[in-house]
Request: fold
Amino acid sequence: MYLARFPFFCMARFLITMKNTGLFLIFVTILGVMILNSTPCSAVEFTVDTLVDTPDLDPGDGFCQDNQGNCSLRAAIEETNIWGGADSIVLPAGTYAINAFLVVTDHLLISGESPQTTILDAGGKVDTTTAIIHACVTPNVEIERLALANNTGHNGGGAFVCSGTELRLTEVEVRHNT
Reply:
């Protein structure tokens, strides 16, 4: 039978066969203990390896990867938005070109090396209605050791935060934003 090739069908047949034996009770008990002792998804950390602003190839697959195989800041944020937990993104020194605002929807820590060497640069073109970082859904966003620069958004310029969201900036410069 074709269905017999699928693991789920095989497992169902195995359980039906076992149900009248003592092994069934042992199996169900072990399975229950495994489920109860399982931990929720742990936090993920991505290290950005490109200065280019590109989307993630497949958000939610657990890999920060654009269509060139690089991990951009946007791709890392798209991945961390899907995975639960207090995620983190490491930004090595560099000037990161930001083409559109970055939406954060989960607990997140973005860490650069310093405001002088790690710069999120909107180049004066991100969006005239918002900021470089847009955080409204999550209760906790931390940004440290970087600069938010050159945005033209009138709703925050560097960062836009909705009511109920806590934004912590540590060693962050918000400069040349209008």
